[in-house]
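Hello K.,

You asked for the raw outputs rather than the summary table, so here they are, unedited. I folded two proteins back to back in the same session to keep the settings identical. This is the first:
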Amino acid sequence: MPSDPLILAFDTSAAHCAAALLRGDSILVSRTESMSRGQAERLMPLLQEVLAEAGCTWRDLTAIGVGIGPGNFTGIRISVSAARGLALGLGIPAVGVSGFDALAEIGDGLPAIRAPREQVYVMLPGQDPALMAQKQAESLGRLILNDDADAQVRAIVRLAAQNWQSVSTPPAPLYVRPADAAPSKDTPPVLLDG
C-alpha cells in the first residue's frame, strides 16, 4: 500500500456535485456534475465512482475534505453531514474548507461566492464574511468567482491534504445568512389522545 495519504474531497455548496481524490501531490480523479437539485441522492454514488475509478476503497482513505460554504444552505448541509458521517464511520479525520480559502488557492483577487439576487458572499481581510451586491464587490477589486467547480474541489482536496493532521474538530457549515425557508407561523394542530 502506498505511504502517501489518500484524501477524498467533495463539495455541493452550489449547483453542482463535485469530488476529487488526491494521493500525495497528484489528483487521481476529479469529477464535477452540474445540478440544481439532487445532490443528496447523487453524492454517495459519485464518491463511490471516483474511488472505483482510482482502484481504491473507502478503507484506503486517510482523510476527507469537504467544502463548508458559504453557498446553498441545503447543499452545504448535505456535504458537511456526509463528511462527518464518513469520518466517524471510517475513523478518519474530516477537514472543512471554506469556499473563500479554496478560491484564494485558485487565483489572485477577492474570493467571491455567488448568491441569489445578483449578490456575492465575500470576506474582506480582518472581517467576518458578508453578503453584498456583486457590483459593490466588483468596486473593491478583481473578484475570483466560484464558477469553476472542478478547480474549487481540487483546491479543497489540496487544502485538506495540507491540514488533515492538525484538525481537531469536525467540519461545520459556514453560513453567512439564515436559510430562505422559515418555520410556519401557523399554530400547530392539537394532538388528540385516543
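The second followed immediately with the same parameters:
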Amino acid sequence: MLTGSGSLELVDDVVVDPPQSGEVRVRVEWCGVCHSDLHVLDGDTPSNVPHAILGHEVAGIVDAIGDGVTDLAPGDHVVVSMLGPCGDCEACFSGATAWCERQYGRGGVAADGSTRMTRGGMPVMRITRVGGFVEYTIARQEAVVKVPDELPLDLATVLGCSVQTGFGAVVNIAEVAAGSTVAVFGLGGVGLAAIQAARIAGATTIVGIDPIESRRSLAESLGATSTWDPVQVSVDEARALTGPLLFRSVIDTVSSARTLPTAASLTGPKGTLVILGITESKTPLEGLLTADIVAGQKRVMGCYLGNGIPRRDVPRLVRLWQHGLLDLDSMVTGRRPLDQIDQAFADLRAGIGLRTAVRVSLTD
C-alpha cells in the first residue's frame, strides 16, 4: 500500500467488498510493475490520498461475480485492464473510450462514490482504477477479459497495459500499413510491444531508439530492422535509411522535452507522431516547430492505452501469441514475490530488465 510519496507498506487489513451489479472480484495472481506506478510512487504523478494501492497489469482468477455478469464465472483465468469502456455512452460512440462515462474513475471510484476497498473504515483508492498489488481486486465486467488456461498468468500481465498500449499505438492510432516506415523512441515494455506490432503490421523499416544496449538488442530480436542510441539520431541519419520522406509513423513512449523535438523532426510529411509517455506529466510541447508541422501536414496524436477496447483487443493479442507472432516470454524478464516489491521498483528505476511480474496471490 502506498502511504506516502516513495513509501510502500505491506498490510493485511484491507477489506474488499463483494462485487456489486456488473462487477467481478478477481484473485490477483500476478501484477506487473509499470512506469506509471513508479511515477506515482516517486511523486512525479501526485496522488494526494492517505491510502492507495498501486498496480494495474493484473492477471488472476475470477473469485466472485455480481448480478448481471453472464460471460465470466468463478475459476476463469482473466486479465484485468485499467479501462473498461461500456460501449454504450457518447464517449464510447465517438471512439474516446478512455473517457467512458460509466467506468470507474481514476482512483477506482465507482459511480456511487465507493472504491470497494476500505482500511480501518476509510476508503482505499486504487490507482489507475485497478489496484493490483492486493490479493483481491474489484473491476467492472467490461475491464475483465477471459484468457485461455494455457496462457501463463505471469505472461498475461503485460496484456493489461504495456502490450495493449504499444500495440494500439501502432495499429489503432498510427494505423501502420504494410511496407511502412516506423521509428519507436524508448524500448521498455510499451516500446517493444510497438516494435512487435509494427512487424506484425508489415512495416519494412522499423527503428528502435534507446540508450540501453540490451534493449536495443532485444528490439532487433523482436522485429526492429535497425536500432540507434539516441546520440546517433539525426534527420540526415534517418534520410539515409528511409529516403527523403523520413518516417511515416513515429511512436514516442518517453515523450519528454529531450525526445519530442527529435521525434517530430523525424516524422515525415503527412506522417503521424504518437505521444504516449507520461514520464513528465506537465511537460509542455516545447521544441515542436509549428511551421514544420503545418507545412508537413503532420498529425500529432495522443495515446492512452492504445485507444483500446480490452474485450476486443486482448483476445486478438492472445491469438497472435497462440500463433507465435507475439512474443510475451521476452517481455517478462523478472519475477518477484510481493515482499520484494521495493526491489522490483528499484530495478525499474535502474533500467534493469524489462518487465517484472510480482507474485501477489498467497494461494498456490
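The longest helix spans residues 189-201.

Happy to rerun anything if the numbers look odd on your end.

Regards,
P.
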